[in-house]
Specification:
Structural class: mainly beta
Number of helices: 1
Largest sheet: 5 strands, mixed
Number of strands: 17
Distance between the termini: 49 Å
Shape: flat
Length: 267
């Protein structure tokens, strides 16, 4: 998103060994996208219609990015996972979902016409009447295909199931803050022990105050804040975010929750 001047672009091409190079339109016309998703931040108020572009086409089996974290604890955050695969030519496809312990959770194979195909997660239980219990850890989705002209392709995606942290809640959701500060509690739930970090940030991500980093047992947890910033003065009115992280043998997970601060007169 930072971009290059034409001179810097020329230097970069020389470093990469290019003999002949071309710069297409720059500025707000410089846009990079992948699988229908914008990857950069083009200058200007909106994306600009363009007449030229460099397009790379992939014709093999494709796995869209899954959600990197699944936390199926019922709190409404990262609870579900959407898995699917796509083919653009008629292909013989085998798709396998592997549990963290290396065992196969589900597999499907067969001839597929061009199109998108959803995959169930959690996979069906052995009796096909209920979803199996979702093991926590690193899951792997692998797709292999051979298309109608004999070209083989393989793609792999990974994601993590980790329900350590959930139900992050600022209490109150609107902090009415007098000049001397006021009590504010960050509440959360742990399904297993973890090292928990809690921080207050502005809505734009600017750090305001780190509240705690400590080992915390499983169960209901909370951290209090007095509404003061690192300078020990009451923070300004506006929109804020509390960020809670939990780290243990399963890895690091985090949740955020928004709240507002309103300044009020003393007394």
């Amino acid at each position: 998103s930072v971009g290059l001047t034409n001179f810097e672009l020329g230097q970069a091409l020389v470093r990469l060994g290019a003999v002949t190079g071309m710069a297409l339109d720059g500025g707000g016309s410089t846009t990079m996208a992948y699988d229908g998703r914008l990857l950069n931040r083009p200058s200007g108020p909106s994306e600009r219609a363009i007449a030229t572009g460099l397009v790379f086409e992939y014709t093999g089996v494709f796995l869209p990015d899954p959600a990197p974290l699944v936390s199926p604890d019922g709190d409404g955050v990262h609870d579900t996972q959407a898995l699917s695969y796509r083919v653009v030519r008629p292909s013989a496809v085998t798709v396998t979902l592997t549990r963290p312990d290396g065992s196969v959770a589900s597999t499907e194979a067969g001839d597929r016409d061009p199109g998108a195909y959803p995959l169930a997660f959690p996979p069906a239980a052995a009796d096909a009447t209920a979803a199996e219990e979702v093991a926590e850890g690193r899951w792997t989705l692998t797709a292999r295909a051979v298309d109608d002209v004999g070209r083989p392709t393989t793609m792999k995606r990974v994601f993590v199931v980790n329900s350590t942290l959930g139900f992050v809640r600022p209490d109150p959701a609107v902090l009415r803050l007098p000049p001397a500060g006021a009590p504010f509690t960050v509440r959360f739930r742990l399904t297993r022990a973890a090292r928990v970090g809690v921080a207050i940030e502005r809505a734009d991500g600017t750090a305001v105050r780190g509240l705690a980093t400590r080992a915390t047992p499983a169960g209901e947890g909370s951290v209090t804040w007095n509404g003061l910033g690192r300078d020990r003065k009451p923070v300004a009115a506006g929109s804020y975010v509390v960020r809670v992280t939990a780290t243990n043998a399963l890895g690091r997970v985090e949740q955020t929750a928004a709240f507002r601060v309103r300044r009020v007169a003393a007394g």
